Amino acid sequence: MSDVSINTQADTTRADTGEAGFGDYFALLKPRVMSLVVFTAAVGLLAAPGSVHPFVAFCAILFIAVGGGASGALNMWWDADIDKVMKRTQSRPIPAGKVEPGEAMAIGVALSGFSVVMLGLAANWVAAGLLAFTIFFYVVIYTMWLKRWTPQNIVIGGAAGAFPPMIGWAVVTGGISVESVLMFTLTFMWTPPHFWALCLFMKSDYKDAGVPMLHVTHGRRVTRNHILVYTLLLAVVAIGMAFTGVGGPIYLVTALILNGLFVAGAVSIWRRDEEISESDGYKRERAFFALSLLYLFLHFGAILAEATLAPYGIGGW
Amino acid sequence: MSFRVDHEIHKRRLGRNVGVALVLVSFIAIVFGLTVVKVTRGDYEPENARIVN
């Protein structure tokens, strides 16, 4: 290839060249979702009774993150057709033409196998089994089956994002317990109101893509009702956790404040209709969504604080 | 001496190669570190390997 030919291609986009950069492959792993996985898995690991070598803990969290990333890559491979239609996902590596779908699948499968085997070797096979099940659940049960089939997709599929603290817990204890199931339940119950709030102000994205989200199939009024019901159920779980082995006074105060705010936000969304929401650009819905991110982060942060301060006689009951 | 003009594609390709290299080096470091931790903690020591005087 001559220099001239190179220069004439200077304006070609990444999509034309088929030459993805390292960052494009990294974007396949959904780094933002991975950060949530890392944080909740780390809290599960640190809150568990017992201990593991710090390097083993670091590797375990890394492999859990890689497993989460692998499932993200497989999700992008399978959903490439609808990602192309939805504004929110159009810039993802496959619809943007930066990465070939086959490449994404190969990376997803390879990293899935790699992360499960490495977690098994580094920690234990219970944790590895849970990670394998999480990947299977997210890719097969949620992405391939539920997402395009039922408006309850996000309710059941949310389980996939709720497993990481259980895996972190299993890394230390080699098993499952009431506390780890409760941490799972917290994220599981949090996912529907968090996601439905996003759906309310994402307008027609899912409708255009033909994904049967609740607001598409049953309307926005029903979605608002569901947000309120799930938020109330979530508050019971979240506050109830304060009286278990992972809870304590710090967690209780955090949960009371956050759940008070969250329920108030859900009531506010429930009392509004589309006309009012559209007039202020879905201000309350957006605020509720932003609060939901802080909600989960601070709940797990409080669990972490309880576990970290317990040796000094401050955390826990 | 090269007369080839450096193109954006070359930079991207270099970035990708360096990225893959770093991932592979990190993997080696992780396997080495895990081996050291496991061996020094006696994880792979058979139960009947104790020396009896």
List keywords for this structure.
heterodimer, A: 317 residues, mainly alpha, Tetracycline Repressor, domain 2, 2 domains, flat, disordered N terminus, B: 53 residues, 1 helix, 62% helix
Explained architecture:
The complex is a heterodimer of chains A (317) and B (53). Chain A is built from 18 helices and no strands. With 317 residues, chain A is mostly helical. Chain A has 2 domains: 20-176, Tetracycline Repressor, domain 2; 177-317. In chain A, helix 12 packs antiparallel against helix 15. The longest helix of chain A has 27 residues, at 283-309. Chain A starts with a helix and ends in an 8-residue tail after the last helix. Residues 1-12 of chain A have low confidence and may be disordered. Chain B starts with 7 loop residues before the first helix and ends in a 13-residue tail after the last helix. Chain B has one helix at residues 8-40. Helix content of chain B is 62%, strand content 0%. With 53 residues, chain B is mainly alpha-helical.
Number of strands of chain A: 0
Helix content of chain B: 55-70%
| Low-pLDDT regions of chain B | none
CATH topology-level fold name of the largest domain in chain A: Tetracycline Repressor, domain 2
Sum up the overall morphology of chain A in one term: flat
Q: How much helix, percentage-wise, in residues of chain A?
A: over 70%
| Straight-line distance between termini of chain A | 71 Å
Strand content of chain A: under 5%
Distance between the termini of chain B: 70 Å
Average pLDDT reading of chain A: 91
Give the domain tally of chain A: 2
What's the SSE blueprint?
The complex is a heterodimer of chains A (317) and B (53).
Chain A: H1 3-8, H2 14-17, H3 22-27, H4 31-47, H5 54-78, H6 80-85, H7 101-122, H8 125-146, H9 153-157, H10 159-162, H11 164-173, H12 178-201, H13 205-209, H14 214-217, H15 219-240, H16 249-271, H17 274-279, H18 283-309
Helix pairs in contact in A: 4-5, 4-11, 4-18, 5-7, 5-8, 5-11, 7-8, 8-11, 11-12, 12-15, 12-18, 15-16, 16-18
Chain B: H1 8-40
